[in-house]
Amino acid sequence: MGTPRGSAGRRWIGRFRRRGDPSARILPIAARSPSVLDQTAVASANRRIFRSKVDGLRPTFGFDDVSLAPGTDTIEPADVELGQEFCGIPLGMPILAAAMDAVVDPRFAGALAALGGLAILNLEGVQTRYDDPDEILGRIAAAADGDVQDLLAEVYATPIREQLIARRIEEIHAAGSKAAVSATPAATRRFGAVAAEHGADLFLVQSQVSSARHLASGYDPLSLADFTRSMPIPVAVGNTTNSDAAFALMEQGAAAVFVGVGPGAACTTREVLGIGVPQVTAISDVAAARDAFHAETGRYVPVVADGGMRRGGELAKALAAGADVLMLGSPLARAEEAPGRGTNWGMAAPSPTLPRGTRIKVGTVGSLERILLGPAHVTDGSENLVGALRQSMAALGARTIRDMQRVEMVHAPSVATEGKSWQRSR
Length: 426
Prior knowledge:
There is one protein chain. By secondary structure, the protein is an alpha/beta fold. It is built from 16 helices and 16 strands. Strands 6-7-8-9-10-11-12-13 form an 8-stranded parallel barrel, surrounded by 5 helices. Strands 1-2 form a two-stranded antiparallel ribbon. Strands 3-16 form a two-stranded antiparallel sheet.
């Protein structure tokens, strides 16, 4: 049925009332012509510009989003040079062990040093709270999933003892390793001087997010510039994902900057707080700050990729993104030498009010040497990590880590699945 029109040429829109209503009839409602509506909408749109936050979202990339592109040259894997000096400490491989209680104790530090790496001991962990931390670590490893969070809160409520800090540093040296130790900013004033006095070689100020300017109304926050000037040993700082923050940390004396907010396997910061930047982008941004700082000052500040790496290819991508050194946690917690007995948990997991980590079961797969240097017994790249890194660098023609930082990286989200249907079906 056609639409009725009035004598004035207006278009009428019908609206029916209920059957039986004495006034039931089509009620005429005047409407403007489409051309007028269109003109009005255009004029309105011209007057108003709406800017949504998501319109300007920056693309970011994790390890699964990128791949490394071969170039014109290749070299022999034996000719790849992985050694460097990190904060005054010689390394035979660019590997640090994360300051996690399930990963590092004095014995583990000695084992990693013998292979060319460096372990960092958490000064706020069980090693400095208990004379015999092995018994405590065993309880945590054996606890039921439903009980472990309460147990962690209980275990970490025991006070830290300064004499145990001194003892652990002495034990690390006796095991044949340099002593690298860490503490959160709130504990740094107290433990920094104690650690340096008793022979620590490197101090890491590590928190969930490190900034050059922390504002607090209830207490006097740590001044990083003052602290680095007062310490007789190098002071590294972490973690950040921001180039401006990294540059400012370098200006304040950081000897190295650690990168990563929430990528670790045992960390739940991204889920609990909703913060974090995928590692490839985060590393690249901080590396850009490092290069700019070096160009302006002549001082080179190493960038440490902390977390999110489990396989050799991810180690290679982290260096290609700009990292100088790689910090591993859960991959090393799988070693027979690790104190966690096949489990791991982050430094924020024991919080009694808002845990930002959980205990995970990673299993024990073999020796630390096998995990880092092989021979690998699996095909997924989680063993012989350094051998895989060396092979990747050789295939890309990168003789040194600095060469590796210059290789081409491409956006390739399909690289892990392309042609792998038979592998996925196994």
